[in-house]
Amino acid sequence: MASGERVIDWLAHRGGVAHTAEARARGFSGRAIADAVDAGVRRVRRSWLVSPGAAPQVVAAIAGGGRGSCVTAARRSGLRVPDHEDEVHIAVKPTASRVGDAERLAVHWAVGPVPVAKYATEDPIVNVLFHVARCLPREDALTVWESSLNKELIDRRMLTRIEWGSTHAAALAELASSLSDSGLDTLFLARFSAFGLALRQQVLLDGRRVDFLIGDRLVVQLDGFAHHSSPKDRRRDIEADARLALLGFTVLRFDWKQVVHEWPRVEQTVLTAVAQGLHRAA
């Protein structure tokens, strides 16, 4: 294998992006690097080597003088991220003086809790969550945080021990719960926490877990975007709701569209049920 081809193969195993200093530390000569460039590898900011198949978000981050972070890195990690603008979010050193196109980038200057390698192209998950907490509205940030917990990218016990250096991040570390396995649960919990209701998640009733139990008798079930692809699943839920009703529970079921786009109506329905005393045992 020619020297340039070895560089290209090495780049492919690194996601298609590496700094020239890393290539030299790996033992590649200047001639080998030049051959790789002649074969299609391009230089970004002179010192970075980028293969044609490298992720555009990563390339945009290093072209901007930083590394991928916040919602950009969260999406690339497969986390649930609420809709946001198409900017690439990057983290840079507080002393950085050459930052790329500000109109296409969301630049994060704060320093996350975890030290980052000199030539890292993306932030570690803790720093991603740190920037998400400082960047997004609280409810949206909480959705991303809980997604990281549910995917087991980080442990909740670890979150609460980290010295975040951010009141937003520290508050989310306390609030995030791995029991919320969908973004709808997260949204519902965050919005109703302000009302001081006795609200519990994933309570076992009649052999099945319910999304929320308010007080002793008011059950709230939330159906996600991809919930129940078959009539059989839907019939099973209808049967379960009927059984709970016969056991003395009131069941309120909402789908993702109602929770996301018709929240005032959802809130009014739940609070009206509480006003009627449907959350209390007879």
From TrEMBL:
<dbReference type="InterPro" id="IPR011335">
    <property type="entry name" value="Restrct_endonuc-II-like"/>
</dbReference>
<feature type="domain" description="DUF559">
    <location>
        <begin position="196"/>
        <end position="274"/>
    </location>
</feature>
<keyword id="KW-0255">Endonuclease</keyword>
<keyword id="KW-0378">Hydrolase</keyword>
<protein>
    <submittedName>
        <fullName>Very-short-patch-repair endonuclease</fullName>
    </submittedName>
</protein>
<dbReference type="Pfam" id="PF04480">
    <property type="entry name" value="DUF559"/>
</dbReference>
<dbReference type="InterPro" id="IPR007569">
    <property type="entry name" value="DUF559"/>
</dbReference>
<keyword id="KW-0540">Nuclease</keyword>
<dbReference type="GO" id="GO:0004519">
    <property type="term" value="F:endonuclease activity"/>
</dbReference>
